[in-house]
């Protein structure tokens, strides 16, 4: 018995070393950043998908604006069991920077409303607005929750490279816990939980002695976690950044380079 116990104790460090390391640890702050972002940001694979959503006709007194707790009327397939709807408006269309293919459409966050009554004209009470509500604004149910344990457990996939094409919150420089839009999605093999390296293209400088242009080496500048995938686009969250990141920076899966 003692000999068996001794063997187990001696073997334990080696057995532990054989266990693959876990994926990126999602602390509470990171989880909150992901869930908060998804409440107010949405992508549709085509404009028609957004155009088929329920829409607002007018506010309570026939006006266009909806202030907090004001009633708005809407048409479309609204589910009375869904207590809260997001109010969205068609935003920018995303195209691939190389092929110009339409990749999807962003839905801009306008606010939220609470469901009150159903009918040919359903009634909702406005809870939050970021700007004036207009007729034609779309009502979207809450997005499906992300299985955070899946983000931690995702395995490396095939080598994929692409480009950061947008910063949804509208800033120009990207830092830690900022979300970005990527020009690759499910069809390209990206899965939620994958970790990507961000590559900044080396600048071209002029050699002061020869006058020739010299391209500086590309440099790894940060790490992204893919947390929501669509057919042709994805959202990534910046986990690390050694310098400010920006739109047009490249990314690649960690299969080619080890961090």
Automatic annotation (TrEMBL):
InterPro entries: Bact_Kbp. Keywords: Signal. Residues 1-17 form the signal peptide. This is Peptidoglycan-binding protein. It comes from Pseudomonas trivialis.
């Amino acid at each position: 018995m003692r000999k068996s116990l001794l063997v187990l104790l001696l073997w334990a460090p080696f057995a532990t070393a054989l266990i693959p390391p876990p994926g990126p640890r999602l602390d509470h702050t990171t989880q909150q950043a992901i869930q908060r972002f998804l409440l107010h940001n949405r992508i549709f694979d085509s404009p028609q998908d957004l155009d088929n959503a329920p829409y607002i006709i007018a506010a309570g007194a026939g006006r266009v604006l909806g202030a907090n707790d004001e009633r708005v009327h809407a048409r479309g397939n609204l589910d009375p069991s869904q207590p809260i709807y997001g109010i969205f408006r068609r935003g920018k269309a995303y195209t691939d920077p190389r092929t110009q293919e339409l990749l999807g459409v962003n839905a801009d966050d306008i606010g939220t409303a609470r469901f009150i009554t159903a009918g040919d004209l359903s009634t909702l009470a406005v809870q939050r607005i970021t700007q004036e509500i207009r007729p034609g604004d779309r009502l979207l149910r809450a997005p499906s929750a992300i299985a955070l344990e899946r983000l931690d457990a995702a395995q490396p996939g095939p080598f994929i490279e692409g480009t950061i094409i947008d910063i949804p919150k509208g800033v120009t420089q990207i830092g830690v816990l900022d979300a970005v839009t990527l020009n690759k999605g499910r069809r390209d093999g990206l899965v939620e939980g994958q970790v990507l390296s961000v590559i900044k293209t080396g600048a071209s400088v002029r050699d002061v002695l020869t006058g020739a242009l010299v391209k500086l080496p590309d440099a790894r500048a940060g790490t992204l976690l893919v947390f929501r995938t669509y057919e042709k686009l994805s959202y990534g969250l910046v986990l690390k950044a050694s310098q400010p990141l920006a739109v047009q920076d490249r990314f690649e899966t960690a299969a080619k380079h080890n961090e």
